Amino acid sequence: MASALITGGTSGIGHAFAREFASRGTDLILVARDEARLNAVAEELRQLHGVEVEVLPADLAVRDDVARVAARLEDQSRPVDWLVNNAGFGLHSTVLDPDDIDIHARALDVMCLAVLILGGAAARAMKERGHGRIVTVASSSSAIYTGNYSAIKAWARSYSNGLALELTGTGVTATALLPGWVRTEFHDRAGINASKIPDFIWIDPDKLVRECLDDAEKGKIESVPDWKWKLALKVGDHGPRTLTRWFTRVLTASRKRH
């Protein structure tokens, strides 16, 4: 039976990954801070799909907790076939405010350092076995300049690309997922008012996850959902930097008004 370890697996995109894997008969290891919610989600998935669900409470901003998750990934007596590095949160704060330093530091710990440590642990174990899939949830924001969040997601994207190249020929693949606006509680938690975003911009999280898993199975280095976001990333990556900077200023200004 295949297994997947998902960080941040009880909400948002991570929960969508958990539901999709469970529906395919894949056993799960769910990692999150909220132990009560972990247990509730685990029991729900067991009942609905008959899969084994292991819960691993951990705060990925705490190095000892990250080390415990890494050890689970490297335990060859209980092999993990998929790692979904998903845990994270939005940053609706300025990089100028000294009062926000702690939240920026936490963001770097959870969405960069933990990703680096867990990706490396999974890659070593999977490489030894000759197969495995690593998915890192980055963002379309990696192509623009919305403060520290864009910087973090650009790092995650670059890291995943580098990992994929290093794993070439090993039977292990690494895929960066680059979603745009996905209908989850993510934006509410970040304090971002998304009420004026047109409906056609939004992505369904279940569709997003299915496409990502298909892309990962094909060994694609990046997974971008939907034609409109593929176009947006192409413009962001290859269009004039002046256009990208202008768009970022407009987006940032609109958020400040809400």
Automatic annotation (TrEMBL):
Q: Which family does it belong to?
A: Belongs to the short-chain dehydrogenases/reductases (SDR) family.
This protein is called Short-chain dehydrogenase
The cross-references to SMART domains, in alphabetical order and at most eight, read:
PKS_KR (SM00822)
Name the Gene Ontology molecular function terms of this record.
oxidoreductase activity
Query: Locate the Ketoreductase domain: which residues?
Result: 2-184
What highest taxon heads this organism's lineage? Bacteria
> What species was this sequence derived from?
Tessaracoccus flavus
Keywords, A to Z?
Oxidoreductase
Q: Could you tell me which InterPro entries the record lists for this protein?
A: KR_dom, NAD(P)-bd_dom_sf, SDR_fam
Database matches in Pfam families: adh_short
- Example of a GO cellular component annotation carried by this entry: membrane
